């Protein structure tokens, strides 16, 4: 059975995994706690990576190099950018880009990397299919499949949200997944990101964010319970 790395954003989501983790073992690396055990019948390592791209990238490389995880699933919250997407909805990433990578003075398009084969990291097609299946069971919440953009910025302005949506054709924004995707891409490890929408990345974002955290945690439980046995 492949070992699955689960990177979650919040304590609430980790609790959900830990409650059902059999034979749990905790390991400390780089200030993060990695919980190894059996979840929904499969061997997993679950961890909170912290906020932002550096934390997320470091955490991902540790999962791959030290724990030898063969698949990586990232669960968390995101700000909705598409006008139809509401808090509580779920977005599965099919491609991921870093919106704060900006080498325009060197002649590169926004979000494009210097001397790298790609700028939009794709999710693994099998994991994407299993994520769709897992999402079909979400009660009272819609799900969307499309691009998620990542940057070291909490987006809380309607102008910026609209601009990211239009420029990158992105459904949602958050602060980790495209850096996890980049590390997985470089290591040839299948990756998927599934995010619950906590806010609309506008002026009320910080309030919605607090209110929708429990819903996001509930969505994460359903998704992981449904998806892990498929992986
Ligand atoms: N995660 C959840 N909401 C977000 C937002 N508005 N901007 C960045 N990351 C987020």
Automatic annotation (TrEMBL):
<keyword id="KW-0378">Hydrolase</keyword>
<feature type="domain" description="Nucleoside phosphorylase">
    <location>
        <begin position="4"/>
        <end position="228"/>
    </location>
</feature>
<protein>
    <recommendedName>
        <fullName>adenosylhomocysteine nucleosidase</fullName>
        <ecNumber>3.2.2.9</ecNumber>
    </recommendedName>
</protein>
<dbReference type="InterPro" id="IPR035994">
    <property type="entry name" value="Nucleoside_phosphorylase_sf"/>
</dbReference>
<keyword id="KW-0028">Amino-acid biosynthesis</keyword>
<dbReference type="InterPro" id="IPR010049">
    <property type="entry name" value="MTA_SAH_Nsdase"/>
</dbReference>
<dbReference type="Pfam" id="PF01048">
    <property type="entry name" value="PNP_UDP_1"/>
</dbReference>
<comment type="pathway">
    <text>Amino-acid biosynthesis; L-methionine biosynthesis via salvage pathway; S-methyl-5-thio-alpha-D-ribose 1-phosphate from S-methyl-5'-thioadenosine (hydrolase route): step 1/2.</text>
</comment>
<keyword id="KW-0486">Methionine biosynthesis</keyword>
<dbReference type="InterPro" id="IPR000845">
    <property type="entry name" value="Nucleoside_phosphorylase_d"/>
</dbReference>
């Amino acid at each position: 059975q492949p070992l699955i790395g689960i990177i979650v954003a919040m304590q609430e989501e980790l609790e959900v995994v830990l409650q059902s983790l059999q034979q749990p073992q905790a390991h400390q690396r780089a200030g993060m706690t990695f919980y190894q055990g059996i979840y929904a019948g499969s061997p997993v390592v679950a961890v909170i990576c912290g906020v932002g791209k550096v934390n997320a990238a470091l955490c991902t490389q540790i999962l791959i190099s030290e724990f030898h995880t063969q698949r990586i699933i990232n669960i968390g919250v995101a700000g909705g950018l598409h006008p139809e997407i509401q808090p509580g909805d779920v977005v599965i990433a099919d491609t991921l880009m870093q919106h704060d990578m900006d080498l325009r003075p060197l002649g590169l398009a926004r979000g494009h990397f210097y001397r790298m084969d790609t700028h939009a990291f794709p999710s693994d097609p099998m994991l994407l299919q299993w994520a769709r299946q897992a999402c079909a069971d979400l009660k009272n919440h819609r799900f969307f499949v499309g691009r998620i953009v990542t940057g070291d910025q909490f987006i809380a302005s309607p102008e910026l949200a609209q601009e990211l949506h239009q420029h990158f054709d992105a459904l949602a924004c958050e602060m980790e997944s495209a850096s996890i995707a980049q590390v997985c891409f470089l290591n040839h490890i299948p990756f998927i990101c599934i995010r619950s929408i906590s806010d609309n990345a506008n002026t009320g974002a910080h309030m919605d964010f607090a209110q929708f955290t429990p819903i996001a945690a509930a969505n994460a439980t359903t998704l992981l319970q449904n998806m892990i046995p498929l992986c």
